[in-house]
Write a structure and sequence with these properties.
heterodimer, A: mainly alpha, B: 93 residues, mainly beta, 5-stranded antiparallel beta sheet, 5 strands
């Protein structure tokens, strides 16, 4: 069983990504020059990937905090715990960059990236892709792509449909691992496995 | 024949694939449900904070409970935290 957050990622978010893919095919075709016609779609795809992953990570944090708080022995203690676990989270104010995720999920006593890396090989490389996605997302959203390219701050230096697909694939696996690791954590705390 | 105006909304008819937030719109539509902007406090006796609902996260609770983001304090310096709907009580602004 997966968490509600993961199920929503795998249904609603995937459907949104597929819409961009369809738009790509409709606009771009296969002729030379399609790269220029579809660059804005790639930027939109990048922004959408980052936004939906933030939504997933935030929802997973909310659900994990809820599962842990419900394990408290009385309602007052549960509310106190829930409030502490959800107070001023990074994911509420920032992108789902690895340090935001580490900070918020660290409240559950988790070294989240160590656990995620151990959960599936290659996750350390997928985390690097998440950083690249977020860096590109910020460059697009703040309209400073050129300045960042000059500083060599964007890797890769251009975004194609293949880049977006690679990011999407990495996020899919990271989402599954995050879901698994948080369920493991609830169990380790002596609670029923929540999903 | 022309269609007549109606108060029905898309969110009144959930279908598979709807997002939690979309479904949440319907769940918060009745007059006695909590909604963004409501001033609230905790029903639990050990707490006496007062806050405002600033976001409806939908039925994200592990048992499907509605979860809200509460701001305690003013707009610029207030603190944000989450609370379950069943633990909240609406109060006068």
């Amino acid at each position: 069983m997966a968490s509600k957050s993961l199920r929503e990622w795998q249904t609603d978010a995937w459907a949104a990504f597929d819409e961009i893919e369809h738009a790509h095919r409709a606009v771009g075709g296969t002729k030379p020059g399609r790269r220029f016609l579809t660059q804005q779609l790639n930027y939109a795809y990048t922004t959408l990937l980052a936004a939906r992953f933030q939504g997933f990570a935030r929802a997973l944090h909310v659900q994990t905090a809820d599962a842990i708080a419900l394990g408290a022995h009385d309602a007052n203690y549960a509310e106190l715990l829930y409030r502490s676990l959800t107070n001023e989270t990074m994911l509420e104010r920032h992108n789902a960059q690895p340090n935001s995720i580490a900070d918020d999920f660290g409240r559950f006593g988790l070294d989240i990236w160590a656990e995620v890396d151990a959960e599936r090989s290659g996750n350390d490389q997928r985390r690097k892709k998440l950083w690249a996605l977020i860096t590109w997302r910020n460059a697009i959203a703040h309209d400073d792509i050129d300045a960042k390219l000059k500083r060599g701050a964007l890797e890769p230096s251009t975004i194609s449909l293949a880049t977006c697909r690679s990011w999407r694939s990495a996020l899919n696996i990271l989402a599954t691992s995050l879901d698994e690791v948080t369920a493991d954590r609830c169990q380790a705390l002596g609670l029923p496995r929540p999903w | 024949m022309r269609s007549q105006p109606t108060a029905a909304r898309r969110s009144d008819f959930p279908v598979p694939g709807d997002t939690f937030k979309f479904m949440a719109r319907n769940r918060t539509s009745s007059a006695d449900s909590l909604k963004v902007g409501d001033h609230v406090t905790s029903k639990l006796p050990a707490f006496n904070w007062k806050g405002v609902i600033v976001e409806d996260l939908g039925p994200l609770g592990i048992d499907g409970s509605q979860i809200f983001v509460i701001r305690e304090g003013d707009e610029d310096n207030g603190r944000h935290f989450n609370a379950r709907a069943e633990n909240l009580e609406r109060i006068a602004a």
